[in-house]
DNA sequence: CTGAAAGCGCTAACAT
DNA sequence: ATGTTAGCGCTTTCAG
């Protein structure tokens, strides 16, 4: 392993230049020489160091990936999609997580630039107002956003507004009128805003007043009592909940069940993300499913195009979402039934 | 960003050596000079390229992580644990997945070595018989295994045999006698073998015959009919299932429910891994929980010790597991109850 | 077809 | 305190 091109050259009896050519342009070397050198390479188990190449200004074959967390399968799935294609293309992935923290986003991007990555695939909290992205636009490297909902920058996502709209329409179509939206603590994110817009629009079309969204820290082990109280107060009790992500939906459902409520009999629940595990729940979780792995794949493809020198498209690629029906959603209980319960 | 140490030197009016010192050993440079150089660095937005340093034989501050997949939260959690500490220590992580494929394991390790990673953290299918690990022992870089159950190599895991034993004892303590073990398609892995040993031992102590393990592809969308039939055949019907991982447990439970069986009334189910999502299920999944994030953290710490030149300990670090009781496990139905159902 | 040499960005002797 | 220089592993002119 610790053998260098010099060792090969010495063993084969040629100059390092010839060895280099034998590796990178075999046809420019005489067959006999090629043979000798290849033998030397094999016996020494020589593998050219990417560092030398990189330093020469060659491609590093390195791509940075920046996501908020891997605890959420949404991002693990995206990463999986990227990894499939990147590995096949001979690229290496450097991974950094941010925990939705701006300082860490900044640190990750800087670190990755130092490493001379050829491109960046990232999910940030708020794409439109992100100063570092402007810097990337100017100085490179190329980047593609995942899940960020913006028109101004290269990105791959779903139409969050529309997806939320379609999801909430499922609820209103079932007869729900009092629908509450629950958002994670990342309420500041661009996609959270879009989802809320879609939610509001759907309710509006049903002539229903939009209830104020409730913010929940879905990393907390338990659903806070205050939130639980809010969800179940008799006077204003919603008949359905629209959770801005599946993990949140699961935490909320558990909290409600512990408090003695039944889903969907007492309360319908709709998630967002469509993580695979949701389908394995009992009852299966209804959710607005985003094609996470495909988002990762497409992000990779767009990045490769950019790196390849294609005209840099500032446009966002919108992938289709699917409203996945599930047994956590049912028609609302009638007042009579409610009273009985 | 394309500015180099030369640019800084030129702008500041000093040699590149002085600039290098200003960065790496500020105290060896006069305050005035330092000031000038720092200003130049700021205006040029200069950040030293790790490539030059690396080539100089300096530390790359790169660590490779190799896991089978990120679709299984077990590994995503490990990675999360590693990432926390690695980022804090100023290291960068290069991630590669293998999908349990030997060829990909090989490719990943080679690629990472080429990148001159300072260390490797990995989960392989079978650690004891892995030839590449022998090579790493000889030529470096240092590595630490996660989850692999071996005495011969540096590793961090739980005692899989004991953990499975403790889990199955939970079942026998509840009165179960016919306990079937379900294993993923990775039945060849070292930990799968250990888990089966523990399972067998627990049953033996109850004086019960060990049933042959059933292999299930838990990546399949549906539980195959043949497997379902096996699990529910009246004659040999088990009263409890021990699944070698939680994802598998969830797939199996869904299949059983669709076939009209109730859990835990008709059949108890115990998982393995203790992924966080299991606790959110209804009913919460009983599982032998492994401290995945801690496994990642400890793996990191051991790796750092090795890199730091500590005596290379070939020993495995065993972390405690926890048998997490859950409502998917109940006493077996009596024959009477069964007949009723 | 092959070799000599320069240089990528940086650090570390060795000089001054 | 600062500058000069060699060289890390490699690719790539430019000459033979």
UniProtKB/TrEMBL annotation, chains A, B:
Keywords on record: DNA-binding, Transcription, Transcription regulation
GO molecular function, one term: transcription cis-regulatory region binding
All copies of domain HTH cro/C1-type, residue ranges: 4-51
Residue ranges of domain HTH lacI-type in the record: 3-57
Domain of life, per lineage: Bacteria
Any Pfam family: LacI
InterPro entries: Cro/C1-type_HTH, HTH_LacI, Lambda_DNA-bd_dom_sf, Peripla_BP/Lac1_sug-bd_dom, Peripla_BP_I
SUPFAM superfamilies reported in the protein's UniProt record: lambda repressor-like DNA-binding domains (SSF47413), Periplasmic binding protein-like I (SSF53822)
Protein name in UniProt: LacI family DNA-binding transcriptional regulator
Source organism: Burkholderia stabilis
């Amino acid at each position: 392993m610790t053998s260098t091109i010099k060792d090969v050259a010495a063993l084969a009896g040629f100059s390092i230049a010839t060895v280099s050519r034998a590796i990178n342009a075999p046809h420019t070397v005489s067959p006999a020489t090629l043979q000798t050198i290849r033998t030397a390479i094999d016996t020494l188990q020589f593998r050219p160091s990417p560092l030398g190449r990189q330093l020469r200004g060659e491609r590093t074959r390195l791509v940075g990936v920046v996501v908020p967390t891997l605890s959420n399968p949404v991002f693990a799935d995206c990463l999986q999609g990227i990894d499939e294609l990147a590995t096949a293309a001979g690229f290496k992935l450097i991974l950094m997580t941010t925990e939705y923290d701006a300082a860490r986003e900044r640190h990750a991007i800087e670190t990755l630039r130092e490493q001379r990555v050829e491109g960046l695939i990232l999910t940030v909290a708020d794409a439109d107002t992100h100063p570092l992205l402007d810097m990337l636009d100017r100085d490179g490297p190329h980047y593609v956003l995942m899940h960020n909902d913006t028109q101004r920058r290269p990105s791959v996502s779903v139409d969050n507004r529309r997806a939320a709209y379609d999801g909430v329409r499922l609820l209103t179509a079932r007869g729900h009128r009092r629908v509450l939206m629950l958002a994670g603590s990342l309420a500041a994110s661009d996609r959270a805003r879009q989802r809320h817009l879609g939610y509001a629009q759907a309710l509006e079309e049903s002539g229903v007043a939009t209830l104020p969204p409730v913010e929940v820290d879905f990393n907390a082990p338990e659903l806070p009592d205050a939130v639980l109280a809010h969800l179940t107060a008799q006077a204003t009790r919603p008949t359905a909940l629209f959770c801005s992500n599946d993990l949140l939906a699961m935490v909320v459902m558990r909290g409600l069940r512990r408090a003695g409520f039944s889903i969907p009999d007492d309360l319908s629940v709709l998630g967002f993300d469509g993580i695979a595990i949701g389908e394995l729940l009992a009852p299966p979780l209804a959710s607005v499913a985003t094609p996470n792995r495909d988002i990762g794949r497409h992000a990779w493809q767009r990045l490769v195009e950019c790196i390849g020198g294609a005209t840099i498209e500032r446009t966002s690629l919108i992938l289709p979402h699917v409203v996945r029906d599930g047994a956590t959603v049912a028609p609302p209980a009638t007042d009579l039934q409610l009273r009985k319960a």
